[in-house]
Specification:
With 532 residues, the protein is mainly alpha-helical. The protein has three domains: 206 residues, Clc chloride channel (Orthogonal Bundle); 213 residues, Clc chloride channel; 74 residues, Alpha-Beta Plaits (2-Layer Sandwich), CATH 3.30.70.1450. It contains 19 helices and four strands. Helix 1 runs parallel beside helix 8.
Length: 532
């Protein structure tokens, strides 16, 4: 009799648990719908901030270009030089006050999503990143708009997560959605925006993250398309060369080898100079004086090569110079200028300078192909687009993002297949060359700084998804990595004692671990709570 009563109580407990679990699964669907709606709000707000950022950069660089094209009198250059130098000093001061606004923004965004960084004053930092990025690029430095756009989006995602009081586990998804929306606003490429979050920032393909990022990217991309009705990349005319399959494969193989070797040199020099610049004893304003001197000299020679060099690249792709030596010299000049600009640590990304270097490298290879009768002159832009994609693969190690981005922003699907071939070969060769992604190196340098080493323990928040490994498990039965401990389980806004709690979908679980282990354990722990 006692055994029967005990079995009955156990069965009743199991039925009750299943009822609670089913209720939470149904409720979780409503919570997901709310998250997707909020992610679209994040995309809209990011677009309303990042698109004006892009527009102001475009406008100021256009005004700057027209001014220098008018050939002003010599006495105007002295006050202008001092003004631009003063701008750089001011932006450098802002970065010292708020270190997180420096650089591109992708490593910082990844740090926030991983939990290694906290935006303590997100609105102030957003405004500073916005202002600093515009001033640094408008002064002529070779920096891109995409990195700051990513970080601006993450700031927006952070603010919206606070305003809407979303669950702890959903905050990183809104941060990722904002970051993707930033890329979509910068390039009007919503599909590539979700891929870059998965490949470079979130580095984990949870379905929720992919969906929220894509929704936010579509909304932000729509805002961008309303302002920038004409995409300048669409004006590039592309003609696919008509040569035999084996000749084509041989040409693509040579192109991939050249890009891989040049990418290795590019990345190594960029990182070495960046570290050397930071360790130099020269006062900051003196280093910025020399940087501005280089920028102003290049401005007087070729104004479109400054401000990232995107306008110069577009001009070359639409029928620029055919002198191989001149294009190669300009490419090297732009590369050296980009190295100094990136090393300064001022707000600005490295995607645009990377695309410019890759495009000009492709033009050199294309013009050499014309010289030796492999391709025709009208095919050079075709090689340039492939090279842009492959060079981005070599530096950032994000093949899906690079291939889709170039195809999406140019609208030329004829470069998709060759970009896959050359990009795949480049990825393999860079593996042989033991190249690390550029933004991963920057991220590692950032987290190994003294400020991060002081933090001994870190708490990771994960959300339990239906049918994941942790779904239905007792906390007491879980075997977690060494020095990892579940310190709290939040369900329906209430904190539960972990011991004796059986996890169900929608639970927000907080796992404490050593800070230095987060990069190694982040994906394994999150994968236990998510489904692929």
């Amino acid at each position: 009799m006692e055994v029967r009563d005990k079995a009955k109580r156990i069965w009743t407990r199991i039925k009750n648990w299943k009822t609670v679990r089913d209720w939470h699964i149904w409720k979780l669907k409503l919570v997901d719908a709310r998250l997707y709606f909020v992610s679209m709000i994040v995309g809209l707000l990011t677009g309303l901030v990042a698109v004006p950022y892009h527009y102001l950069l475009y406008y100021l660089l256009h005004v700057r270009g027209e001014f220098y094209a008018s050939r002003p009198a010599w006495y105007w250059h002295v006050p202008l030089f001092l003004l631009f130098w003063g701008i750089l000093v001011f932006v450098s001061w802002m970065v010292k006050k708020m270190p997180l606004i420096g650089g591109g923004g992708i490593p910082q965004t990844r740090g926030v999503i991983n939990g290694r960084i906290t935006y303590r004053h997100p609105f102030l930092e957003l405004a500073s990143k916005f202002t600093g990025g515009i001033l640094a690029v408008s002064a002529g430095l070779s920096l891109g708009r995409e990195g700051p756009s990513v970080q601006i989006g993450s700031y927006v995602g952070n603010l919206v997560s606070r305003w809407t009081h979303v669950l702890q586990g959903e905050r990183k998804q809104l941060l990722a959605a904002g970051a993707g929306a930033g890329i979509a606003a910068a390039f009007s490429a919503p599909l590539a925006s979700s891929l870059i979050v998965i490949e470079s920032i979130e580095r984990f393909d949870a379905p929720k993250t992919a969906i929220t990022t894509l929704l936010a990217g579509v909304v932000a991309g729509a805002v961008a398309s309303l302002v920038f009705t004409v995409n300048p990349y669409h004006l590039i005319q592309v003609a696919e060369p008509a040569f035999a399959f084996f000749i084509q494969m041989k040409y693509f193989l040579i192109l991939a080898v050249i890009i891989s070797v040049c990418g290795k040199i590019y990345s190594s020099i960029m990182i070495a100079f960046k570290r050397a610049y930071a360790q130099a004893d020269t006062p900051g304003h003196v280093k910025l004086f020399y940087l501005m001197l280089v920028a102003y000299t290049i401005t007087l020679m070729q104004v479109n090569l400054t401000g990232g060099g995107e306008q110069f690249l577009l001009g070359q792709a639409r029928g620029g110079s055919t002198d191989v030596a001149w294009v190669a010299a300009v490419m090297l000049l732009h590369f050296g200028f980009s190295v100094f600009s990136e090393s300064s640590g001022l707000p600005g990304g490295n995607f645009i300078p990377t695309l410019v270097t890759g495009g000009l490298l492709g033009q050199v290879v294309g013009l050499l192909g014309v010289r030796y009768g492999i391709i025709q002159h009208e095919n050079v832009s075709y090689v340039m687009l492939i090279s842009m994609s492959a060079f981005l693969v070599a530096i950032e190690r994000t093949p899906l993002t690079a291939i889709v981005l170039i195809t999406e922003i140019t609208g030329h699907f004829e470069v998709f297949y060759p970009s896959v071939v050359v990009g795949g070969l480049t990825y393999y060769f860079t593996e042989l060359l033991q190249m690390k992604p550029f933004n991963v190196i920057l991220y590692e340098d950032m987290i190994h700084a003294s400020g991060f080493e002081e933090e001994k323990r870190y708490t990771l928040s994960v959300e339990i998804m239906t049918d994941s490994y942790l779904d239905g498990k007792l906390v007491d039965e879980l075997l977690l990595p060494e020095r990892c401990l579940i310190i709290n389980v939040q369900r329906d806004g209430k904190n539960l004692v972990p011991q004796g709690t059986r996890l169900i979908p929608g639970d927000q679980v907080q796992i404490e671990m050593d800070s230095q282990d987060i990069e190694k354990l982040y994906e394994p722990l999150v994968s236990m709570a998510n489904i692929y």
